[in-house]
Design brief:
This protein has about 200 residues and is of the alpha+beta class. The chain has six helices and four strands; from the N terminus they run H-H-E-H-H-E-E-E-H-H. The protein has helices spanning about 5-95, 100-115, 125-130, 135-140, 175-180, 185-195; strands spanning about 120, 150, 160-165, 170-175. Strands 2-1-3-4 form a four-stranded mixed beta sheet. Strand 3 (about 160-165) and strand 4 form a beta hairpin. Helix 1 crosses helix 6 and helix 2 packs parallel to helix 4 (about 135-140). The radius of gyration is 47 Å and the shape is rod-shaped.
């Protein structure tokens, strides 16, 4: 073998060795990059899973909270409906009382709500028709001289009870108005009876 052959042989061997080393290094670098990418992908997948679970939990809590609020609102509406129905039934029952009992109740209301000065008392057309004779005198006896109320023959548009007039002042003592003004107190009492 000549010197030139030795040099070429040496260059080929050296190039083969260098290429082999470079190939091995490239394979090792590629494996490291793949391993690093896989680890990063696993880490990202775990983070996404964790975030997804947290988002799902938060969404479930929001849905449960809304459902709970809706349920409470529906229960409250049902209770309010039942209370309103009970008040309406009580007012209907008062208006359906026999005339004697109804007008005794009216006298108690006059005694309670009439101020101590003269005025006019007005009733619905239905109450004027069924009113017992001499009821104006009974009203004034009930007031025992502290005031005098004149019975108006002109009907007022109310459902039971009466309206008191003192000059320009009008006091609505209809059953509906009294129930409305006492609604909060009535609701509390009815609620205790019905729901406690």
């Amino acid at each position: 073998m000549s010197g030139l052959d030795n040099i070429i042989n040496h260059i080929e061997t050296s190039a083969t060795t260098t290429a082999s080393e470079m190939l091995e290094k490239a394979k090792a670098d590629a494996e490291a990059i793949i391993a690093s990418g896989k680890a990063k992908a696993d880490e990202n997948a775990a983070a996404i899973d964790k975030q997804g679970a947290a988002d799902a939990q938060a969404a479930r809590k929001r849905i449960e909270s809304r459902a709970d609020q809706s349920l409470k609102r529906y229960i409250l509406q049902a209770k309010q409906w039942e209370i309103d129905r009970t008040i309406a039934a009580a007012l209907d029952k008062i208006q359906a009382m026999p005339d004697a009992a109804y007008f005794e109740t009216i006298l108690k209301m006059v005694d309670k709500y009439a101020p101590d000065h003269d005025g006019v008392i007005r009733f619905s057309g239905e109450d004027l028709e069924r009113m017992p004779k001499g009821f104006e005198a009974r009203i004034n006896e009930t007031l025992a001289g502290r005031a005098k109320l004149t019975l108006s023959k002109e009907a007022v548009n109310i459902n039971g009870g009466f309206v008191l007039e003192y000059g320009d002042i009008e006091e609505n003592c209809s059953l509906d108005a009294l129930a409305e003004s006492s609604k909060e107190e009535l609701q509390d009492k009815i609620s205790q009876i019905l729901f406690d």
